[in-house]
Amino acid sequence: xxxxxxxxxxxxxxxxxxxxxxxxxxxxxxxxxxxxxxxxxxxxxxxxxxxxxxxxxxxxxxxxxxxxxxxxxxxxxxxxxxxxxxxxxxxxxxxxxxxxxxxxxxxxxxxxxxxxxxxxxxxxxxxxxxxxxxxxxxxxxxxxxxxxxxxxxxxxxxxxxxxxxxxxxxxxxxxxxxxxxxxxxxxxxxxxxxxxxxxxxxxxxxxxxxxxxxxxxxxxxxxxxxxxxxxxxxxxxxxxxxxxxxxxxxxxxxxxxxxxxxxxxxxxxxxxxxxxxxxxxxxxxxxxxxxxxxxxxxxxxxxxxxxxxxxxxxxxxxxxxxxxxxxxxxxxxxxxxxxxxxxxxxxxxxxxxxxxxxxxxxxxxxxxxxxx
Length: 372
Ligand SMILES: *Cc1c(COP(=O)(O)O)cnc(C)c1O
Hints:
Blueprint: H1 3-9, H2 51-64, E1 68-72, H3 75-84, E2 91-95, H4 100-113, E3 116-120, H5 125-131, E4 136-142, H6 154-163, E5 167-171, H7 176-179, E6 189-193, E7 207-211, H8 216-228, H9 234-244, H10 247-267, E8 271-275, H11 285-291, E9 298-303, H12 306-316, E10 321-322, E11 332-335, H13 336-340, E12 350-354, H14 360-371
Helix pairs in contact: 1-2, 2-9, 3-4, 10-14, 12-14
């Protein structure tokens, strides 16, 4: 089945109790036992499982081509659960430009717990090999990267990881399964911040881990999900699943609009550099053309004149909203350096743009007036 059809039908069933076509929201925290003490519907208590969570996990698992999926209360909770499946003393390789929340988890939460991490340029396979240790158990990949839109070769790194019996986990939040399916390139796990494109309407936070196999690692993750309880609320699962139904069409529009905006910015004299994998000049363009089905809806650009000039552009937009996060219907612009904190290595004249579903001509007009 094609991804558009899967997005509409996976995890979908007409409610047998009422005939409702869209799923009811099961707010009940507890589920009835049969007289013989069994649980005929498979649910006991909502921390362990809930019908809306099951439907969401089923749908995203199908879209990513995975064997199983587990949903969490946020992308960061999903990331933490993957890291918790490792053991103290294990070593993790992560990108030097990894999502700052993931870097913080590795340094501040899992460092003291005994997990070792090395941050390395994951686009450089030789550098990755040089950073490996006998205790390396996990490669964390994020591609395209945030906010420099660096493109990492998932298949090449999966071969390196597997040769050393390590797992590869790909944060697929930027691309979504519509544009990139990491499991098909050899990744073992995929993580999503579902508040972004999956939900797609900036109204629910959740996270999901999808696993290629339902074996040992996933079973441990599932147990941690139940024990740790960082689970999403039924309504949030319902909202994210509703978002998934239109994901392929939204990603198509985001990609088309970002292409128009990137081409405009690349021609503008006030813009020093545009970082968008869909542009032929981008260092990751050829790899992205192979690994992805489109450049996606995220781009960054550097403004001539430094941090102040970049802030003036962000201050001058009227249609685009100044806010963090991305993947919603509305376009968002952000000065990344100021949100990433003191460890940030992001250029200070860089603005990140989440290109939304407005007409691209209106977005171009807004950027044109803001750039002056
Ligand atoms: C937002 C984001 C996360 C974290 O997700 P939360 O739901 O905010 O915890 C992880 N990775 C990437 C790439 C993100 O953009």
